[in-house]
Amino acid sequence: MRPFTVEQQWDIFREFIQKKLDVGEPSPHMKIVGWLSKDVTIRERFWRAGCYAVPYSIITAEVLWTKWPLDFSLAEPETLERWIYDNWKDIHTRTERRCVRTPAKFTQCLLQYSQWVDNTLPGILVAIEGLDNEDAYNILWKSIHTVKYLGRYINIRILDLFHRYCEVSAHLYDIRSIGGWSPKKMLALLYPEHTEVLLGPGKYGDPLANKLATEALYRYQAEGLKIDFYIFAAMLCEYRVAYENMRQYPGRTHDQEISYFKKKGQPWVDAGFEFGMFEARKALFPHECLGELNNWDGIRDELSTVMRESLYVWSDLEFDYEKTTNLRDPVRR
């Protein structure tokens, strides 16, 4: 496979972003959290943000917030800890949350987060009233970093959930390049003349990364893409994985949830737990991209090769997966 030219990178990245947006990505599981939490208090939504973010799993999130509402968690932390240990084999965490993949670290992170929501966050929300967006976001960013075993990657998502579903006006205003190597690698594909600085040691390339990301974001917005810094930061990473590792395509996160559920959701169903996530998926996302409504039951690895090998971006809204036998010549709907 030949590398893409810079012009191809810009064009195919634009197509990739649009087709991700069309199927409800990135972070469709965050949208499910919002949908399932629309009838609870704002305070409980803040708690649910943590139930989702600590494991980075809608499966574990639903179980946690159903069995352990915030006030119950605050009143019975030792009982919650014991429950986590007792049920650890069925608690799902995504690979991005390697730092909490022991019951001790998971418990410490979750309990610290509950205390932060109860004791610290209310004062922070008062303190940021009336501040400009950057100052307000920076205060939230600094504060949530005090919760052990959270970090750059997941805190971006927690604060975005706060903004979209918890009535917090502060929102991401850059790509948080500090500590993030993946977006800088992707920016180097768009701006190869800046590769040496972008991929320099430590934080050396961070200022330039934020500058170039802002420039690229504004360019794509001017071309009609409905994106913000959160979406763009996520897309930089997902496209890089699609291009370099061939492990991404529009709809993959939806497919991934089915795979996770078969392994980690089904034991809870067998024990009598009723999930709402599939009702939410059906309400929120195009039915053409949901495997449970069609004839696939997990990640479709062959779609990950399409972009590099065939120079187009797959979309279940455009192509019929069931009827397609040759991905170089997909059947259109």
Describe the 3D structure.
- The protein is an all-alpha fold and 333 residues long.
- It has a domain at 28-165.
- 59% of the residues lie in helices and 0% in strands.
- The protein has 16 helices and no strands.
- The chain has helices at 6-22, 28-36, 42-53, 58-67, 70-75, 77-86, 103-127, 133-144, 152-165, 181-190, 195-198, 206-222, 229-245, 252-270, 277-284, 306-310.
- The longest helix is centred in the middle third of the chain and has 25 residues, at 103-127.
- The chain is globular, with a radius of gyration of 20 Å.
- The chain starts with 5 loop residues before the first helix and ends in a 23-residue tail after the last helix.
Poorly predicted ranges (pLDDT <50, ≥5 residues)?
none
Determine Rg (CA atoms, Å): 20 Å
Name the structural class. mainly alpha
Reported for the largest beta sheet, the result is: none
Approximate strand percentage: under 5%
SSE string, helices as H and strands as E: HHHHHHHHHHHHHHHH
Q: Helix proportion of residues, in percent?
A: 55-70%
Broad shape: globular
Count of individual helical segments: 16
Mean pLDDT: 97
Cα end-to-end separation: 28 Å
Subunit arrangement of the protein = single chain
- Using DSSP, what is the number of strands? 0
